[in-house]
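Minutes, project huddle
Topic: does the predicted pose make sense with flavin-adenine dinucleotide bound?
PN asked that the exact inputs be recorded in the minutes so nobody has to dig through chat later. Recorded below.
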Amino acid sequence: MIERALISEFKKAVGAEHCTTDPADLALYAYDATTVEGNPDCVVFPATTDEVAAALRLANDARVPVVPRGAGTGLSGGAVPVKGGIVLSLARMNKIIEIDRANLVCRAEAGTVTGVIASAAVAQGLYYPPDPSSINFCTIGGNVAHNAGGLHALKYGVTKNYLLGLTAVLPGGEVLKTGVRTMKGVVGYDLTKLICGSEGTLAVVTEVTLKLIPHPPHRAVAVASYPTAKAAGEAVSAIIAARILPAMLEFIDNTSLRCVEDYLKVGFPIDAGALLLVEIDGRPESVRAELDTAVEILKKNGATSLSFADDPVGCERLWEARRAVAPSLGKASPRRISEDITVPRARIPDALERIGDIGRKHAIPTAVFGHAGDGNLHVNLLADQRDLAIRPRMQAAIEDILRLALDLGGTLSGEHGVGLAKKSCLGWEIGADGMRILREIKKTFDPNNILNPGKILPEIGSE
Ligand SMILES: Cc1cc2nc3c(=O)[nH]c(=O)nc-3n(C[C@H](O)[C@H](O)[C@H](O)COP(=O)(O)OP(=O)(O)OC[C@H]3O[C@@H](n4cnc5c(N)ncnc54)[C@H](O)[C@@H]3O)c2cc1C
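Predicted holo structure (tokens), as shared on screen:
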């Protein structure tokens, strides 16, 4: 419990109406998009970098945990205050500060919703490509903290590829400005990229400087259905091996397909074993030529039906359907577990086959979808993780899936991060020396371990 006197100090720092200890409010900040829970003692809503600094100084002096929070859409428990303390919400810091059209740069406060930045860029004929499926409600600060990817990461990369610099507040309240607003810059260790992906454990990001690019003039999407997930996986590997670079190459298996069709009624062929969504963008002539080549490969690999969209409304409708896959699975199986492995693209068919085997071995239904062009598969275990009779089987299945990712030369997470969910297995991938360096970095930034404690790094001795 936090002392009442300290709460009064937080109220002085951010304004009494922007600091709450009302149990009804606290309950809203006890969750993210996982099923993990943990009640904070207090939620503060600073409006400026200086207010963030003042709140952190108070918490650091009192050794009280602080959990930074964007929109709470994270899928690894990162924004859940499992050790109590303060939730520091960036919700009031939600302004685009500048779109510099001459230099193709955007500056925004960390609590700005990513989709607002993307739309503001489009209004200027520009493009901010990282588009997590949660784009319409997650924040840019949360994206930086997770180095979020998205549907268009295959061609355009992830958040860190567009992050030029940031303003961040260290746990002791010092304001750090990192990076550049130029297209190049190699001065010193790259603190911008170190903070990107640090999941709120090193510093609170308050402002970001992002690179924008010209908006592609044209896009077209092909939707191909396959009799089996493995056949669709083989088509993905074939497209990558043919050196075609789609803007988007997404995979949806039959279970996910049925759920999303039930949820949105898009007209997807629900009897297909799996669907691929392949988007090509660029100048109209090159889009047509590249799409023809991609379609040849899709057909050669056994596509049983094909449909197309080449207008903005049609493409947006398909993206919307793809973005709805996770919520539709959530509706069908609210207590499911969603894993997030990435494997080398040529190993996708093996991964899909072995994920099916793992589900059968543990008698847990699975649904797989994801950014197949990146090798990033979201493996959903469709069971109630709160059911004590099933939980051990779910845990064993998760462990098998994570081991599979590493066996195939992949990684434990493509974009959802470590948070609470994967900290016990981090050492499998990073190794003992890597873990030691991560701990030393954490200690340098946060010697009193107040910033998002218990996330990413396992307790010492539990690795
Ligand atoms: C339906 C759905 C679809 C999704 N699709 C994708 C996808 O395609 N790609 C993808 O990458 N992710 C996806 N996600 C996961 C999630 O949206 C992203 O991880 C997103 O980046 C989280 O942003 P947020 O603002 O909600 O952060 P939160 O959930 O509030 O926080 C996430 C982590 O970041 C930290 N944090 C938040 N803000 C800051 C800050 N300003 N400074 C320091 N640390 C901070 C928190 O402490 C926490 O550890 C999806 C989630 C959902 C629910």
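Observations noted during the meeting:
- The first helix runs from residue 4 to 14.
- Residues 96-214 form a domain with the Uridine Diphospho-n-acetylenolpyruvylglucosamine Reductase; domain 3 fold (CATH 3.30.465.10).
No decisions taken; revisit at the next huddle.
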